[in-house]
Amino acid sequence: MAAGDFEARMTGYLNGAAACLALSIGRETGLLKVFMEPHEPMTIPEIASKTNLKERYIKELLGCLVTSNIIEVDEASVKYFVPDEIRSTLDSTLNSIELFDYGLARKEDLKSCFAIDGPNGFAGQTKPGYGELLKKFRCTNIDNLIEEEFFKHTPDIKTKLESGIDFVEFGCGLGPVIIELASRYPNSRFIASDYSPEAVAYVTKAIEEKGLKNIKAQKADLYQLPDEWVGKFDVVYIRDTLHDLGQPLKGATEMVKVLKEGGVMIIIEIVLKGDNHRENKEDPGAPLLFILSASICVPESLCQEGGIGLGCTSGLKSLKNIIYQSGIPAANIETHELATLSCKFVCRK
């Protein structure tokens, strides 16, 4: 690459970082909230009145967002707006910005892990707000999520949920998905499981507040699940969690054990298509995933005893190797690409 081309690329990265910082500030101050609802083009005084923010700072932040081609301004450079057709994309981007902010907040923790005599890693739950962040990031559209992850490739699950089955989610976090399923399918029985006592307590409270009788939250060790669970569940579900496990193969094997004969295990995972850095060079989503993996996923895995540090960038081949060794015959495993950087494994016992 010529020096001039490299300089242009680096300038682009710096400007992109500036835009991300502006989006982060705009999200946290509430400035961007007025743009996320249907609106007519607004002047800076109008925006200031709606947000109760200072005009001078609004002007400068809008300058960054307009010159980054994120927010539009009219020909007179007086009124600002976000076109209807890009508003939903901007909204989902803000969720990613919030996740990036979390990674940035762990910068000092991550730096200490690099040191030879530093800690192996750290758990996400040690930072306040982590569970809420994941809930928001994972469930921007719960209806679409349920359709894509449960019914699109496995329509039999919907019929079974309506009739009544045993369903468990591992790594449920604050439980948005399984609580929603329990509310929709009262004939089925659900267990929301997580290693975090705080998460389990949160889910228990949420269940009580909703008055649901067909679901309970339970702390469980995914490396040694209760004997009474062996062969119990019709559906086992785990989302964006397998790569965070210190010993993912052991966890996957335990999940297969608690699955009934004829049951279905659904694994949703973040996936880079390439299996090494060279193969991922042209993937536009790779840089963000690598830094999030370094600051969230790898430390989560390595802080566990015997953790291998798989992370969310290990590639499809590595994930398949783990899942294929879990006890499900290879012929009974389907792989489906979902949204960008997301993959669904359907494993029938």
Automatic annotation (TrEMBL):
Q: Which domain of life is it from?
A: Eukaryota
Give the Methyltransferase domain ranges.
162-280
Organism, scientific name: Patella caerulea
The S-adenosylmethionine-dependent methyltransferase Rv2258c-like winged HTH domain extends over 17-86
List the InterPro entries.
Answer: Methyltranfer_dom, SAM-binding_MTase, SAM-dependent_MTases_sf, WH_DNA-bd_sf, WHD_Rv2258c
SUPFAM superfamilies reported in the protein's UniProt record: S-adenosyl-L-methionine-dependent methyltransferases, Winged helix' DNA-binding domain
The protein's name in its UniProt record: Methyltransferase domain-containing protein
Q: Name one Pfam family in it.
A: Methyltransf_31
